[in-house]
From TrEMBL:
This is SDR family oxidoreductase. NCBIfam families: PRK06523.1. It holds the Pfam family adh_short_C2. PANTHER family: 3-OXOACYL-[ACYL-CARRIER-PROTEIN] REDUCTASE (PTHR42760:SF133), SHORT-CHAIN DEHYDROGENASES/REDUCTASES FAMILY MEMBER (PTHR42760). Keywords: Oxidoreductase. InterPro entries: NAD(P)-bd_dom_sf, Sc_DH/Rdtase_CS, SDR_fam. GO terms for molecular function: oxidoreductase activity, acting on the CH-OH group of donors, NAD or NADP as acceptor. Belongs to the short-chain dehydrogenases/reductases (SDR) family. Gene3D superfamilies: NAD(P)-binding Rossmann-like Domain. It comes from the Bacteria.
Length: 258
């Protein structure tokens, strides 16, 4: 790929102020794209155009889209990165209707809502790329840790595939990236919290969690920049014939074929 293969492209990265989202935003900007990032609160520093928005709120999504249309005329690349594990572990008996709705709204409906509002412009210009950031949890749920989260990501995978098929002849590509354990600040906090609740050291906590998923053959977590580099390739002209596929980036940890 050329270093500036995204020159003149407009990209929106949701949850683009930290972790994987920030790494993606920085990567796309380095490749020449004009990058817009959104999150609920503005960071102290950002190199990109920031718009505050809660994507679980339909009115704020509409306002976000309006500001982008007025300022940039639309977008060419959408990275649906907002999401997270917000519900307790412990299995079905610990999860209430509120928990289930909360996880589905954050990890599935927020992406559907934003896709729906930006797609008319992409279809009109007969070009665009949408990336949904999912998780390998969508294929490998841990009932005692992430049941609702895993279900929401599995639903996102299915939605993304269906949308890709619908849009394949309209010039819009839709792909899914499913990271495994990635060394973000949020992941480190989660691992530390898990270790404290289990009465073990953080190192033991990491080993215990990794053992539940069969371990990571490459022996380490991914770096956010590695996920960003995959996303860069998928939105670039080099990936023009790719759509509807889920790309796991997990160091070989998923113990399945495909």
């Amino acid at each position: 790929m050329e270093l500036k293969d995204l020159k003149e492209k407009r990209a929106l990265v949701t949850g683009g102020t930290k972790g994987i989202g920030k790494a993606i935003a920085d990567e796309l900007a380095e490749a020449g794209a004009t990058v817009i990032v959104t999150a609920r609160t503005k960071p102290e520093q950002t190199a990109h155009h920031f718009i505050a928005a809660d994507l679980t709120n339909a009115n704020e999504v509409a306002a976000l889209a309006k500001e982008i249309a007025n300022t940039f005329g639309g977008i060419d690349i959408l990275i649906n990165n907002v999401g997270g594990l917000t519900t307790p572990g412990g299995g079905h008996s610990t999860l209430t209707d509120v928990h289930w709705n909360q996880e589905l709204d954050l990890n599935l409906i927020s992406a559907i809502r934003l896709d729906r509002i930006v797609l008319p412009q992409m279809i009109k210009q007969k070009s665009g790329v949408i990336i949904h950031i999912s998780s390998i949890a969508g294929k490998q749920a841990l009932w005692n840790l992430n049941m609702a989260y895993a279900v929401s990501k599995a639903a996102l995978n299915s939605y993304s595939k269906a949308l890709a098929t619908e849009l394949a002849d309209k010039g819009v590509r839709v792909l899914t990236v499913a990271p495994g354990a990635t060394r973000t600040e949020t992941m480190v906090k989660f691992l530390n919290g898990y270790a404290i609740s289990a009465g073990i050291t953080p190192e033991e906590g990491i080993k215990q969690l990794m053992a539940q998923t069969g371990g990571i053959p490459m022996g380490r977590m991914a770096e956010p920049e590695e996920v960003a580099q995959l996303v860069h390739f998928l939105v670039s002209p080099s990936a023009a014939y790719l759509t509807g596929t889920i790309y796991a980036i997990d160091g070989g940890s998923l113990p399945v074929v495909g």
